Amino acid sequence: MRVAPVLSKELTSGYDSVSATVKVVINTATFNYMEKNMAILPRYALPELTRFITALFSNTGMDADKAEAIADALITADSMGHSTHGLALATWYLEAVKNGVMAITGDMRVVNDRGACITWDGLRLPGSWLISRAIDTALERIEQHGVVTVAIANSHHTGALAVYLPRLTERGLLVQLICSSPAARGVAPFGGTEPLFSPNPMAAGIPTRGDPILLDISSSITTLNSARQLAARGERFPANWAMDADGQPSDDPNAVISGGGSLLPVGGFDHGHKGYGMAVLVDALTQGLSGQGRVDKPQGTTVNIFLQVTDPGAFAGQDAFTRQTQWLVEACHANKPVPGGPKVRLPGEHAMTRQRQAAVDGVPLAAGLIESLRPAALAAGVALPQPL
Hints:
By secondary structure, the protein is α+β, with helices and mostly antiparallel strands. It has a domain of 196 residues: Ribosomal Protein S8, Chain: A, domain 1 (2-Layer Sandwich), CATH 3.30.1370.60. The chain has 14 helices and 12 strands. The strands form 3 sheets. Strands 2-3-4-11-5-6-7 form a 7-stranded mixed β-sheet, with helices on both faces. Helix 4 packs across helix 13. The longest helix is centred in the N-terminal third of the chain and has 21 residues.
């Protein structure tokens, strides 16, 4: 669940000039509200929820390891608080399987393998499974090469990128995980009005001497998936995070979903060249290196992935690396907050705390989410999990 500032109409037009104090206070209030709501959501035991979701996908004829990978990725997203990319996607994934959009058996195709540099065609297999396999490959080769990079074209959806990072950071490895959707157009280049890019998320896991730093951002202010969910609920963006087809600021997600408009890049109308530059880099890494992309005019749900794993031990050493990163953590924590603001935190801190809580107290899910899976549960012959 990404925390976003809720701004009044008066503040929206001058968003970039709003004082840091106002923004932090608004952000803090929003975060506290979301945390309060999460506290009253029904919670489900992690093992039971995992068995249930795995059974739903296994019933489709999906290979067992792929069903397990999907269940783990979606449930971990909810555990971390990334609810837009958690089990809210399960029904869509099941429909993708039913319609043949997501492949459910078999292996990826190896395009190139030069030891430290690997390229695959994902053949529309589940993104969570492909990333898991890419991590397996990186772990097998990292001691020999120090840096291992895997470029994957033509994957199905990956879900939240943050969920994959701890598996590498807990081994002391630095990881970058980047994605694009070559068939999706929801973000115009800075200065333009016609959607060209997908939100192009970028994630990184940075080991420290404590909890890792987990970065998961996108080159646009928000995501297409969030826009779809807001539109379905009849809600609007908290601020002018989009522009309509005429290039005018908009807080209406329908302007993006069905109106020919665009999400704004990070930086918005004033400094959107920053998010635009990020989007260009992501397309180059995910599509250029994998050899498939927008120039090929793909159709449907297709995702390209760039995974790079680095062993600090191959450079100045693990201790030298974490000496620097731990100092950074402590320096950020010690930084004086703006008036009325909370203690400065590092990216991923709340996600790790929520994940630990979910393992003990259960995974929080939106009311009605499990009920929405009843038809799939009936087809699979499995009982719905009950809240704790």
